[in-house]
Amino acid sequence: MAEISTKPYLIRALYEWCADSGFTPQLLVAVDGRTRVPPGFVKDGQIVLNISAGATRNLTLDNDWIQFSSRFGGVSHELSIPVDRVMAIFARENGQGLHFEPVDTPEPPGQTPPPAPGDASVLPKGKPSLKVVK
């Protein structure tokens, strides 16, 4: 039987501690091809995300994926973060939290994030495109 990682459990515990303490939980994420975040906010291959209840909608912290929707520059985005790409979870106010050793795992072919909660559509394949709606 494969060993179950403690990382998702520690992330959930620190998230709850931040919320109970009145702190803002933040994630430091190493972005890769499986990580779905707004690319304009990624710096040096990393992004810091506010995952507080007031900053997210439909937040799920499961054992493999962290998913939620959030606004960046006034535009709503659906985010999907593989748990193995989380480098830290910490309180913005005091920096207390946990840092994890980065894991550079090869991306399994065809692995995509599961659909966001409440999203019944199938994830599109191929090159993304932008459609202007007036």
UniProtKB/TrEMBL annotation:
Gene3D superfamilies: SspB-like. Residues 105-117 have a biased composition (Pro residues). InterPro entries: SspB, SspB-like_sf. Pfam families: SspB. Residues 98-134 are annotated as: Disordered. NCBIfam families: PRK11798.2-5 (NF008769). This is Peptidase. It comes from Thiobacillus denitrificans. The lineage of its organism: Bacteria, Pseudomonadati, Pseudomonadota, Betaproteobacteria, Nitrosomonadales.
